[in-house]
Sequence to fold (765 residues):
Amino acid sequence: MTPFMSVIMLGGLACGMGLILLMPAIFEWLRPKDAQPIAIDNTWSRNDTVFAQNFRRLAGSWWGISAHVNSPHVGISAGQIVDTPVLAQNLTTGPDVWLKKEVWTRENLILGSNNQARALLSDGFADLGSGCAVERWVHAEQSVSLGQDTVVNARVTSCEHIHLERGCQTQLLYAPTIEWSGQSLPIPIDVPSHVRRWFRRRKISEAGRSWDVPRFGTLDETVFVNGDLILDNEADVDFSLVVRGNLYIRKGALIAGNLKAHGDLVVENSAVIGSLTCKGRLVVGAGSSIQGCLMGGSLVWLGDGVIIGRPDFLQAVSGQCVILTGKGVVHGRIHAVTKLIEVQR
Amino acid sequence: MTLELIVLLVKGYLIFTVVVLVIYVVRHYTLTLARVFLPSREAYQDWACMATPTVTVLVPMHNEERVCLGVLQSLERSSFDKTKLQVIPVNDRSTDRTAKIIDSFAKYHAWCQPFHRKEGKGGKPAAMKDAMPLVTGEVVILFDADYLPGVGLLDSLVAPFMDPEIGLVMGRVVPHNGSRNLLTRLLEIERSGGYQTNQQARWRLGLVPQFGGTVGGIRRSALETAGGWDDGMLAEDTDLTYRLLALGWKVAYINRAECYEEVVETWIDRRKQLRRWAMGHMQACMRHLWILLRNPDLGRWEKIDGVLLLVVYFVPPLTFIAWFASAFLLMVRPDLFPPAIGVMLGVIVFFSIGNFGTFYEISVALALDGLGKRQRLLPFIGGTYVASLFLVSEALLRLIWNRIRGKSHIVWDKTPRYRR
Fold:
């Protein structure tokens, strides 16, 4: 065999092998099996009642949309295990009942203590006793009340009002008004009296300010600060702040602007009209009022008497873990991204 | 002596090229692994619908009669509060029915306020620059005319601006005409890799996601502080990303803020598009590289990622020249090359690790999108890579040629529309 023939044969072999490798690609090109555009849904992440809505649709197919409910009031006595879905006008259970499938009440739902359930939907109010455990979600058109130490694994939503007793845990809460009653505790971070600040460059002089904020590089209404920053008592800020360190806001401050800290952000009994964002812990001390969204990088801690948002101006609180202490109110949504929302025992 | 010097230089060049390629391979793997294993960052989606500043949507249109009504109708269906919304279709010297269509739409929608640009410099940045005096919103959102924003998209794009550090927000682009032919299918999977893996990983790692100039938003005050649009730039999006980074702002990438677009359907149009992107990117690189390196507000990794993003279009010409350099070296100094077994090992290592960085990135994206069967098309991506190697190298030559001739203005090739 001449060298030329050898080269031709080797080349042919290589091309053949290459063609074999390309076969799946060629088939997919000529006879596409997966060519539809990617489905887009921009609304899923904001639809807090999506589970309840889907269940309503599903249950409609089980029972018929306008299912006639024969029993106006269903009572389940203590210790029973119910392993079928329940559709009732009203439902009341005794203690230690296990509802293995979904429950839908056309009016009100009252669960006794230490009940277990899969998912609960109520067209009226839903009242869960202490120590209940819900595997998935709870939704009520009116109010939802969770007794002490009740755990709902996924989410609790209501079109009106949610009340949580101490020890309650869940991952997402959504209602125009969310209230809790937990143990009142002092803030978990010590606010230092002095902080380190440094500047790489200073662009704007500080004349005429009643508070001592080191400023550099202002960008319209946003001020960027390097290092930690304390806004002293009675500070009055009317622009947004980005602090590349920890940010401490002392009592009585009034902030009209969005705040961000690369470290921890602590607000002691102050009013903020704007959002709070930080990469570390976000601590909102007792008596603070925030008219904006909150986002903490790790822990979000809300103290006694905190008010977030308004019923007509819903806001969101999110963090890896959210701790609710004392008595407070959030109008909108509370979301623990990876761990839990817990009312302090 | 001269030959030895040339050989030394060529060797140095080849070593440099290998180092650059290895860095990009490491980058691809790092981003792919970060996308899969790192948890998601700030949940700005939680803020959607709750934080609503006033918004102006700019839609530049140049002879867009085929598609302009689609984008306006999509915006009409948006769930965003219309009392806080201003939409400005920027009719940029259109000679077709674009003006008529947007005017008749605006007649029935108070939030739609068309801007007709009769003359001036061509190109998207020039059109947007002229439209800026009409903008009233605190946030400016951009869409190209062929885009079809979904119901909740504006809310998703606007929400991150409540974080005072965010100057730019980028959403995800999804082709809706991907099934048209082989090119569109390849572009579709390339987009998946670029957004689902690359952009999302850079966001998760706290690096520099790129603002793409469409399906994205800009804080108006930041834009104004940065000096507004530069109509001399071909890649105004990259230019803006780096100008705002230099001023301390950050770019947020929202993977769930997805929007349909139309990808180019012919290879000729693809060639023009890629050439424009490459030239624009190189132009931005020359302007911003040094500023980026000296920026004290950026972290080390942000700088590294910023540089790698900025110089990415120089890699194909670098590789292209390296081929010739290797051939030259093989001819003049064959003794420098390793024995055949060494070459084979090198080729095997390269094809099993180096060359597949991009493919892994795309594969992961397709898997995350639930489109596993599309991975069969991946071998064809190798072909487009070779084609882009030539096209990007050509773009660099054109850019150099323009500079030599002192021609600062670069012609803007408009992307054609195909909607039936």
Q: What stands out?
A: The two ends of chain A are 88 Å apart (CA to CA). Residues 216-343 of chain A form one domain.
